Amino acid sequence: MAADIGTLLADRLRRVRWEGGGEALDRVLAVVLDGIERDLVGVGLTPERRADVIRLIAAAADADTATLPPLGSDAAFRDWVGALQAQLRSRDRVLAGVGGGAGAAHLGDTAEARPTEARPTVPAELLAALRARPMAERVRFSEIVAQVLNSVLPQADSPGRRLLMSVLDSYLASIPGRPILYRGRPEWLTLDAFDLLRAEAADSFERALERYSLVEYAEVSPVADRHVEEWTEFRSWIDEQSGLALAPQIRKVTFQYNRATDHLPWHIDKPNKVALNCLIMLERSELRQSALQLYTHEGTIIEVDLEPGEVLLFKGDATPHRRTPLADGEFVRLMSIGFMLAGQP
Known about the structure:
alpha+beta, seven-stranded antiparallel β-sheet, five-stranded mixed β-sheet, globular
C-alpha cells in the first residue's frame, strides 16, 4: 500500500534528523506539541485530526510510542503529549519557546516576494508520491497543516523552524499552480460591477449573518450569485490567469471582520472547496492595523493590504494565509470566489 501524506513527510523529517538537523528539529517539534495541547488554531481540532498531528510529531521525532495507549480519549492524548515532551527533554536539548513572528515583506502590484536564501530542492520521487495522494486525504491533511502552521510560524527564525517548514514546503510544492497569481484592479471589475457586489454584500449582512468566534459570514444574495455565474469576462480572466483546468462550480461567500481581535489563523483552504481563491475587497475602514499575510514557497511572509476594488488571486490550497487581528474600530469586508480543480469528487 502506498504511503500516505503524513508518512511521506515524517520520512522526510527523519532524513533531516539523520543528516544532522535533529537537535534544531526537536526544539520546534516541542513547540508544536505545546501548540496542539493549547489548540493554537483557535477553531478546534476534531479528535481524529488531533491524533493525526501527534502521530506525525511522534514519527518525525523518532519517538518510542510502543507503551502508549491508543489515541482517542483526552486522557490518552495527554499521555502522548507528556511522553513525547519527556523523550525530547531526555535528549538533553534546550527546548525553545515561541518567539517573535517572522518578518513580513509588502506585496506590491507585481506580487513578488523579497529575495531570500535558496530553498532546498524537493526530491522528484517525493513530489510524485505526494501528488498521487487522493483528494480526501488532502482535505484531511489541510487541517493538520493549520495546526502545524500556527505552532511554527509565530516562532522566531531558527534552523529548526526552517527545517520543518522546508519539509512542509514539499507538500505545498506538490499542489499544482503558481501560489500567487495576481494583485490589482482587473478590467472586468468595472465600477458598476463593484458597486453591485458591495451593495448586495451589505444587504446580505443586514438580513442574516453567522458569527464564528473569529469572523462573520453571510450568504451571497441571489442577485450577486447570478452576476458571478454569468460573468463571462471574469471567468475567462480566471482561466487565463490560472492556466488550470477548473470545475464549473463556483463557491461564493462574503465575510467581514468588525470587532477588535477578529482574525483568521494560519491555514490553507480545503482543496475540495477552494483550490483557487479570488478575493475582492469590498469595504475597508480608514483605521488599519490588520492585514492579510501569505507564506510563500520562498519561505517569506508577505503582507497584502487591499484597497476597496482591488483583487487578489492565489492558490488557497497551496498558500498558507491568515488575517491578523483587528484594532478596535477597524472594519474589513470581502468577497471570496473559490474554484475547484476539474475532475475532483
